[in-house]
Amino acid sequence: MDNNKYQFPVIAKWIVSILIIAIVLYAFWYFRFLVGCIAISIVLSFIGRPLMKLLERISYKKFHIGNIPSTIITLSALILSIFLVFYTLVPLIISQAMNFANIDIYQIADFYAEPIKKIESFLYDYQIMSANTNLETLISNKILTMFQMFQINDIADSILGFGTSFIMGFFIIMFITFFLLKDAHLLYNFIMGVTPDEYINEVDRIITNTRSLISRYFIGLSLEILSMIALLSIGFYLVGFSNAILIASICGVMVILPYIGVIIGGAMGLIICITGYLSVDPSMDILPIIFKFIVIFGTVKLVDDFILQPFIYSKSVKAHPLEIFLVILMAGEIGGVIGMILAIPTYTFLRIIAKEFFSQWKIVQKITKGI
Questions:
Q1: Cβ 111 vs Cβ 286: under 8 Å
Q2: Which DSSP letter does residue 195 get?
Q3: The pLDDT of residue 157 is above 60
Q4: Which of 60, 190, 216, 307 could form a disulfide with 316 if both were Cys (CB 3.0 to 4.6 A apart)?
Q5: Model confidence over 252-290: pLDDT tens digits?
Q6: Closest among 225, 369, 235 to 300, alpha carbons compared
Q7: Can you give the pTM of this predicted structure?
Q8: Which residue did the predictor score with more confidence, 140 or 217?
Q9: Residue 152 has pLDDT above 50, yes or no
Q10: SS3 185
Q11: What is the spatial distance between Cα 41 and Cα 172, in angstroms, rounded to a whole number?
């Protein structure tokens, strides 16, 4: 019987490898804020790279834009884009928060008391709800609890806490992005520098494939979000919704959460839309508003599913939809919303690594087919 595979050096090698992986994963979790900043910087460098290359090709006689001026212009364009987004949305968010705080819950409850009684009777008749439960009280308490989140003091504290982290993170991200744009091969050279010689070719292919797939994914995702926001803004504006841009932005940005994002974005957008009207007139009939929202949102989502996504993504990540769905759910359990956002690019990167180092496994051959 051949016992070579049970030799101690082989077992020790596996144990050490597992320990190293565990330590690396723990370090990623412990320094997750910094890791997140680096990840965002890499994404921004991918997005800014086409503009950077275009600027470097501009020349007139002996004049041409150098590397550093091109980097500064590209970074300035990214900062300006971020500033314009916040400049447009922050006042709308504050205004909407004020609308939440000014809603008279009890007046709304009085207006809808009769329909609630009819629903309550239906639930009693079919024993869907126990007889000792008051539906009106239950709904009022739930809504009141939800709106307590939008008290002015809580909003101010949240903005202050978020603002501190945002400012620090912003400067870290911009600093790292500058050097990633300036030195296109900085990350590549670092990775290749710490890679053992026997794995140079495999790691080189991993970096090349990752750069191509993930760059296409994020650029495609940005185009999809902008297209969704533009179409939804036009639709909501035409039917007379107040805060059309804010509602469209929330619904559009939620596209970054595939499958689940449409539900979350639609629900958040509808709540903001309804509360905007109820803050002005608590007795307003909300059914026409809901109908208009569903028609506009559903139409744009169909355009996204059948036109935007096939055109923009093509086969960018080359994975089965069910596979992506399960990965997103697991990432959500591990890392919440941030985990869901990073699920697809992280999974794509892991598939590329698996293809290079574990291609002899059947399961790896299946999930990496087409990469």
A1: no
A2: S
A3: no
A4: 216
A5: 888 777 667 778 888 888 888 888 777 777 677 788 888
A6: 235
A7: 0.65
A8: 217
A9: no
A10: coil
A11: 9
Tell me if residue 112 falls in helix, strand or coil: coil
| Rounded mean pLDDT, 75-83 | 89
- Lookup: tokens for 320: 């089965």
Contact criterion met (CB below 8 Å) for 300 and 228 = yes
pLDDT at residue 234 above 90?
A: yes
Rounded distance between C-alpha atoms, residue 273 and residue 276, angstroms: 5
Beta bridge mates, 63: 60
**Dist CA 123 CA 121 (whole Å):** 5
User: Beta strands of the chain (E only): which ranges?
Assistant: 59-60, 63-64
- DSSP assignments along 311-336, one per residue: HHHTTSS---HHHHHHHHHHHHHHHH
3-state secondary structure of 239: coil
Distance CA 304, CA 310 (A): 9
> Which CA distances in Å does 109 have to 60, 124, 135, 291?
70, 20, 11, 21
DSSP string, 244-313: HHHHHHHHHHGGGSTTHHHHHHHHHHHHHHHHHHHTT-TT---HHHHHHHHHHHHHHHHHIIIIIHHHHH
Task: Give CB contacts under 8 A, 24+ apart, made by 132-136.
Answer: 136/109
The answer to whether 196 and 215 have CB atoms below 8 angstroms apart is: no
C-alpha neighbours within 13 Å on the C-beta side of residue 225: 17
For residues 276 and 296, give the distance between their C-alpha atoms in angstroms, rounded to a whole number: 17
